[in-house]
What does this fold into?
Amino acid sequence: MPSAPSQPSPNDTRVLVTINALPLAVGVLLSCSTTLGEISVYGRLTLAMGWALTQLVVLVGGTWWYENRAVSSCEPASTTTASSPSAGGTW
It folds into this structure.
């Protein structure tokens, strides 16, 4: 019988939320000032568009990290052999 997957630690969840909340808060502040968001960074790339791309990269990277931590914390299912007694007894 496969073992139940273990839950990610609360610390991992806290890190994921913090990593994604900070860029979101800055994005909200940037959206309040249209003149700040219209600053040209490189060619036609504005500060607001660059920040949106940064948020996307942080979201995808943070989710990838969190998923890897969750998968690595799962323990493999125990295997039973013919020499080991079964958990349910004999038939």
